[in-house]
Amino acid sequence: MTVYLNGSFLPVAEAKVSVLDRGFIFGDGIYEVIPVYGGRIFRLPHHLERLDLSLEGIHLANPMTHGKWQTVLEELVERNGSSDQSLYLQITRGVAIREHDFPHDAEPTVFAMSTPVAPRTADIAAGINAVTVEDIRWKWCHIKAIALLPNILMHRQAVEQGADEAIMLRDHFVTEGAASNVFIVNNGVVLTPPKSNLLLPGITRDLVVELCHANAIPCKDEAISEQQLRSADEIWITSSTREIVPVVRLDGAPVGNGQPGSLWHRLHHLYQDYKQAFRKGRAD
Amino acid sequence: MTVYLNGSFLPVAEAKVSVLDRGFIFGDGIYEVIPVYGGRIFRLPHHLERLDLSLEGIHLANPMTHGKWQTVLEELVERNGSSDQSLYLQITRGVAIREHDFPHDAEPTVFAMSTPVAPRTADIAAGINAVTVEDIRWKWCHIKAIALLPNILMHRQAVEQGADEAIMLRDHFVTEGAASNVFIVNNGVVLTPPKSNLLLPGITRDLVVELCHANAIPCKDEAISEQQLRSADEIWITSSTREIVPVVRLDGAPVGNGQPGSLWHRLHHLYQDYKQAFRKGRAD
After folding, report:
1. What is this model's ipTM?
2. Facing A28 at nearest CB: one of B21, B58, B149
3. In the predicted model, what is the mean pLDDT of residues B6-34?
4. How confident is the model at residue A120 (pLDDT cuts 50, 70, 90)?
5. CA A257/CA A122 separation, integer angstroms
6. Which of B:222-261 have CB within 8 Å of A?
7. How far is A192 from chain B (nearest CA, A)?
8. Which one of B9, B25, B76, B90 would you mutate to disrupt binding with A, by most A Cβ within 10 Å of its Cβ?
9. Across chain A, what does the average pLDDT equal?
10. Is the CB of A27 less than 8 angstroms away from the CB of B138?
11. Model pTM?
């Protein structure tokens, strides 16, 4: 795998950073994950816009223009060859003596990699198991920070219970999954928690909302209580890498009839159609 | 500066980790900071015990025995020469393909460094300014995790207001400083918040409590409300690197009479005496 690090393309085995990099020492950085379909980077402007918001959230200037990002990422995708990839990029506050204070003269560290992704529609169609966990994360989850230890430990709680995802509850309301946003369907209406400092503004989340609106499917940004989650007809999680995944069991109990629901089928197909159009250059 | 990385001692400029290290990618690791006085490592057993608790908190086995840690850290201190140092050590979950799931076969990354520390009693005696900030951190602050971005951003809020430390309030109660524990004095009684998942069990904090008890100074583990903080006769912050520091202004208003208080003077001297005894091999 060829990766990008601070201006160079190089084999991942040679890509190393100083032990004093604030990414390594403090988790002081932000990231993005962007799908690549048919060699094209999906919704890059949306991701770069969110990147800017994350950088602003940690008071770090973007070390490259959007145009330069596009050039670098497109070259990275090309060098890694395959049609469908998952592109990852990370910016940290750079290398400095270990002190909480922002360093005065550090250059941000810029890292990007892209890994091939196999289509896994079959997996998705079976649905997944999720468990609920208490949301123990910080209060600025709108920043896509690399300091993901809390998410990792919550995801681990799901794995330990034989589940694939943890759905987080803060004060008995749904925030998001350990690595996804959450949707439910209640009496034919699609609901997802409104954007706030307590959850990441997902690019896939936004696309799902867009697809609902464009196809006259009732969809609302609305707080989801634990009670609503547990009695939902359908639950989905969304993320750039996993797209839209139906949750068929929650804490061991079937969601709806225990099968992926009809609105999930509909959105899944709309999403696949959108992807196909994108592959052919007919969508952003 | 000579550092330790995965079994080797090497110059810091050569100490590099893979971009896939989970410390760099996820903030998935823990750390300790340990003072060295007169070439002796201060309260090492306490720090190694806390290290084990942090590792347990993130489900990672300690890659070295306490005996091995002692050998490595003592060699590091010796190689770095000076009498007083600040020793830093960090363990991450190692190098693996980027996935939230714990890797099956990664070796933890072990890093340690030690930097000379000049005595700065004069600075301390002047006292510092602190501001209050909302505690935005996660709920497992008892784990000394490297994912410190929230602390860094809160410390930044203090710096932007011309202060030296941020004192964090969660639901109107004091938790800790951005990089310290907090004590107040109220009518001659020393108070510090009880240990919980919301704050780090500081080694210096514990020593201050010990010194109070050993010297018949009334001292209690007790929740401190915002109101109590604002009307305190004295406020101190404690940490391994800064020892006991009096806060003389809080959010711009003087604390007590705006000078370091008498109980701070007393504890400061008791702490310095303890350190001197330690330097001479007469204390742990």
Report:
1. 0.96
2. B149
3. 98
4. low
5. 19
6. none
7. 23
8. B25
9. 96
10. no
11. 0.96
d(CA A70, CA A1): 19
| Alpha-carbon gap, residue B154 to B132, rounded angstroms | 9
- Rounded to the nearest angstrom, the minimum Cα separation between B111 and chain A is 8
Q: CB-based contacts of B133: which residues, under 8 Å, 6+ apart?
A: B154, B157, B158, B166, B167, B168, B169, B178
Per the annotation, the verdict on A144 as an active-site residue is yes
| A278 CB within 8 Å of a chain B CB | no
pLDDT digits (tens, 9 = 90+) for A214-245: 999 999 999 999 999 999 999 999 999 999 99
What local confidence, expressed as pLDDT, does residue B121 receive?
66
B residues 191..220 contacting A (CB < 8 A): none
Helix (H, G, I), strand (E, B) or coil at A32: strand
DSSP assignment string, A181-233: EEEEEETTEEEEPPP-TTS---HHHHHHHHHHHHTT--EEE---BHHHHHT-S
For residue B105, give the amino acid letter. D
Locate the chain A residue with the closest alpha carbon to B97.
A115
Find chain B residues with C-beta within 8 A of A100's C-beta.
148, 151-152, 155, 178-179
A86 and A33 Cβ atoms separated by less than 8 Å: yes
Nearest to A267 by CA among A221, A205, A202: A205
Burial of residue B195, with CB atoms counted within 10 A of its CB: 0-12 exposed, 13-18 middle, 19 or more buried: middle
Q: Is A90 on the interface with B (CB under 8 A)?
A: yes
Q: For B106-122, how does the pLDDT look when each residue is reduced to its tens digit (9 = 90+)?
A: 999 999 999 998 776 66
Closest to A266 (Cα-Cα) out of A206, A203, A218 = A218
> Cβ separation of A147 and B150 shorter than 8 Å?
yes
- pLDDT tens track for A139-190: 999 999 999 999 999 999 999 999 999 999 999 999 999 999 999 999 999 9
